[in-house]
Amino acid sequence: MKRTLKFVLEILQIALAIFLASIGLKAFLLPNGFLDGGVTGVAILLSKLISWEISITLPLLSIPFFILGWFTVSKRILIKSIVSILVLALIIYFENFEPITDDKLLISIFGGLFLGAGIGLAIKNGSVLDGSEILGLFVNDKTGISIGVIILWFNIILFVLTGILFSLEIAMYSVLTYLVTAKTIDLILEGFEDYVGLMIITTKTKEMQQTLIDEVGHGMTVYKGVKGYGSRGKKDDIEIIHIIVNRIDSKKTYRVIDHVDQEAFITEFDVNNVKGGALKKYLTRKDSKKPSTIVFETAE
Questions:
Q1: What's the CA gap between 243 and 86, in Å, rounded?
Q2: 8 Å CB contact between 288 and 244
Q3: Is residue 268 helix, strand or coil?
Q4: Pairing mode, if any, of strands 237-246 and 195-201?
């Protein structure tokens, strides 16, 4: 029963994803000749060149990527992706949205928002509405080149061709659409909760730990370390505080650290993914765990 409910929820979300992507295409991009990146952009470009409906060019251009997908993704994802793109093509064909605006900046931004929301929601539910991701996975598997780099060069070639065949203005607005689409996909997949990590070295370790727990409300990990390597050799043992905070709390955390020890050495780094622990979430109602201090000592 639980698995059936999960599957139905996936299908409903993919249906919503397809609808959002179709709005981005039919209500914004297609009536104004703007492109997006990836296979969708190539399909729009080819449609303009040979006067075919995108509802035909999109499934046809996706066939080679489906073949690559046979060797790179699970059969479940591949089947859902094939069905999703075919349904998207049908909706584009029968959908009859009137263009909402003729402002080129609004077209680029909102076209990218709707298309990015659709693609991101589809990916989150195990489907693909654009085959460039499959191409990236395949080339990465064969060559080791980053998926992001592959997709970037794919789109650079696409937008250069757009500028040559049509106009630089269309190409530039299409780049803006692609950037909005890509950022929207990231937000859908990764969420709005953004975290940073801080490594703190201070002479007031105990006071700093307690103040961070009391004032910021986060747990932390404390490592044993040795400072002063270099021409002077090693000095005394130190404790290194490692704390993960929501970016919203980062300024407050810096103020707390500065209040305890203005000479503290701080290293900040981005955190791509985080799970568990005492994490403060602002966009969900999940209760965070009570903060605690965990100490790990280095081996002698």
A1: 47
A2: no
A3: strand
A4: antiparallel
Domain boundaries, the chain: 2-190, 195-296
Distance separating alpha carbons of residues 44 and 95, to the nearest angstrom: 16
Residue 232 pLDDT: 52
Amino acid at site 152: L
Topology given in CATH for the domain delimited by 195-296: Alpha-Beta Plaits (3.30.70)
What is the per-residue DSSP string for 182-249? HHHHHHHHH-S--EEEEEEE-S-HHHHHHHHHHHT---EEEEEEE---STT----EEEEEEEEEEGGG
Taking phi over 0 as left and psi of -120 to 50 as alpha, with beta for the rest, 276 belongs to left
| Pairing mode, strands 293-296 and 220-226 | parallel
What would the pLDDT profile of 227-254 be if each residue is shown by its tens digit?
A: 666 555 556 678 899 998 877 678 888 9
For residue 131, give both structure tokens. 């085959």
Rounded Cα gap, residues 120 and 14, in angstroms = 10
Nearest Cα residue to 291 out of 215, 185, 179, 196: 215
Model pTM above 0.85? no
